Task: structure prediction
Amino acid sequence: MKVYTYSEARQHLADVLNIARNEEVIIKRRGGETFSIIFRKSKKSPFDVQGIQTKATTKDVLEALRESRERFSK
Result:
């Protein structure tokens, strides 16, 4: 467990977060308060999104793309 003052943690935040990947990090404030930083691994990919139901076909999507590209190329 690593312990930093608030000022040290603020000045080296990227390093503190990297250390927190492997062990708990404690930050102490001047008033005596302490805070714990613990790394939590994401349970799933941010790209794992639920699909939606639509009546659009592949042809509709491709046509919309073609139209939008034509507008921007002019």
Observations:
- Residues 1-40 form a domain with the YefM-like fold fold (CATH 3.40.1620.10).
